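cytochrome-c oxidase
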Amino acid sequence: MASTAAPHTQRYYVPAPSAWPFVLTVGLVATIIGVGAYLEGAHIGPLPIWIGVALSIYIIFRWFRGIARESEGGLYSAQVDRTYRWGMSWFIFSEVMFFGAFFGALFYARSLSLPWLGGEGSKLATHLTLWPGFEAVWPSNGPANLGGEFETIPAFGVPLLNTIILLTSGFTITMAHHALKENKRLACILWMWATVALGVSFLFLQAEEYIHAYTELNLTLHSGIYGSTFFMLTGFHGMHVTLGTIMLIVITLRLMAGHFKPDAHFGFEGVAWYWHFVDVVWIGLFIVVYWL
């Protein structure tokens, strides 16, 4: 049962059981199924996407509202604050491992598998029988030419612009943090809305990039190993930017409502940690996926 301890108590607050994690999972699964079906050309319509997105956003805001009420109600002690810090740290570490696996898949395909398919290290030269004429060069759609010929997206175009946008957003949220610690709430709110605008701009440009890739470059999920790794890495990063932008909006609205103090604002700090993580991952994506 939830604790009703007074503010600044040292008792550890345990929230009541909630159905939000399960409902949010349903929304996210519906979204993934809908997007996957759309990309694969299945005829189930856009309804699962809209339902999943609407449900996910609704639950996220309801969930955050509950946490905000607990925090402003004085239910969190110093021990709870430490728990949140450790929890967010381990969550970001798990995200590092998540993207590390995808970067590892790209490295394996590009630096190990592709040369082997081209005959590197082969004493029997079986590649000449299995796929004669195959050129082990990157980007590749594999020996079977899966998805047909395609073009890649130049690094020094939209990807570079998105890199500048995310790096700028890292600066604006840092300025917002400094303003909050100095109790300059209006400046903090303005810097936060600037960060939100940059996040939305990034997502808009990435959506435009995907449309261009699918409609004009023939770069799709079916474009062999390059298409798979490209959309896997950039797509999951885009999902993280989307979640991060929602979190930024929530925190900004809380600031406007008078929440957070200069010396007690881990809700803000946790979102800032997450946003900086998203920035760092994108830099790796820009260099490894687009540039090299």
